[in-house]
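Researcher: I've been going back and forth with a colleague about how C2H2-type domain-containing protein might be arranged in three dimensions. Neither of us has a model we trust, so I'd like an independent prediction. The organism is Umbra pygmaea, in case that matters for your notes. Sequence below.
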Amino acid sequence: MMSPNLFLLYPFYFYGGSNMRRQWSLKTVSVRLVDFRKTSEMGGSNMRRQWSLKRVSVRLVDCRKTSEMVDSSNCLLSGSGLSPGEADQHLDNEKKTTKLLKKHQHRHTGEKPYGCDQCGKKFARSGTLVIHRRIHTSEKPYGCDQCGKRFSQLGTLITHQRIHTGEKPYGCDQCGQRFSQLGTLITHQKIHTGEKPYGCDQCGKRFAESGHLVRHQKIHTGEKPYCCDQCGKRFALSGHLITHQRTHTGEKPYGCDQCGRRFAESGHLVKHQRIHTGEKPYGCDQCGKRFAQSGDLVKHQRIHTAEKPYGCNQCGKRFSQSGNLITHQRIHTGEKPYGCDQCGKRFAVSGPLVRHQRIHTGEKPYGCDQCRKRFSRLGTLITHQRIHTGVKPYGCDKCGKRFAVLGNLVRHQKIHTGEKPYGCDQCGKRFALSGHLITHQRTHTGEKPYGCDQCGKRFALSGKLVTHNKIHN
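Model: Here is an independent structure prediction for C2H2-type domain-containing protein. You can compare it with whatever you and your colleague have in mind.
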């Protein structure tokens, strides 16, 4: 039986003796030469070239460190019955065989004979070096025929084209979710297994993906090697730089096939598509609550662990979310990065800006399902609905009186404390509530902001206007 470790010359098959030694050797053996270029039948009277026995020298190659078959179609044949041209061809084939064997053996020896003349990085295979050099030359020979985007590697192009075709050949056998890349499937499956094989040697934190570990380690080193040539901002990861540069170019290469909305990042598209599918692949192992995004699950789990990993370096206050820390630090810096384009008022947080802009637009997106009254803020709707339900969640610890609104409880408690922190700068009279001070100051200014739309009469207090309107009704 032919050894699986022999490197043979196509189109010949070899039937060697059983006493061949498992090592490099030149051994003269009797072999049958079957020329498949002349016929595809192994027998029959109509064969153009008949079977024959020739005595030839066969070089046997045995890689004893592996059972892997090296893909080769070459072997040295020499001896009687070969023409000079055939002998030269077999000599060339022998050289190719030796080269392939050496490449294969680099896997075992760890040898990396091919070095980059730009950065010195070394590789076991010349083809890998060729691909690596494209980092320095920016060569991208492979182009997408759909959108024109170009790539340095053929495999990256094939993966990219699945964005256009929607092909997802890799499926999870646990939940059925499908992926366009094998690596994404492997990463996803760690959600089910909980495996985190990559650990930080600085703080011990573990990660399911090696890339996440690399990103995390830059927290310790502070390294930011990638710089934006437009604004000079620096980044720890090349991918973050590429994404950032889209803020300058406005490029949004990823589009939703359901609603057409486009995104600058593929991850944002994936998250967005879960709005359409309702998919929530991330589940809490404590309470079972499920989430569409892994980040939301991480934040949620801190409710159970009480972990607050983000600390303010000004006052020491700690937070469970990095975004909350960033917002908090604006108290110390006074930064208000969000501005209203209608009136110029600025805010430290984006949420209050969104709510403020509804003053200008009149938008009231939150509606009561009991009375159809609409509100510009979700919190105001929740408070309003307590009129229908009778819920009063806030109780006074002095007298037990309960309130539907937290602010009403705070005002009530000042009855017990006698606190009047708000003073009038005209007459010195003091008030427990800021709203009462504002109302009082109208006695000095004569301001009457509330007007009747029936007769035009104006009032300093909204309650007086409500009473007046009953005359018309």
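Researcher: What would you highlight for our discussion?
Model: I'd start with this: Residues 254 and 266 are 6 Å apart (CA to CA). After that, consider the following. DSSP finds 14 helices and 29 strands in the chain.
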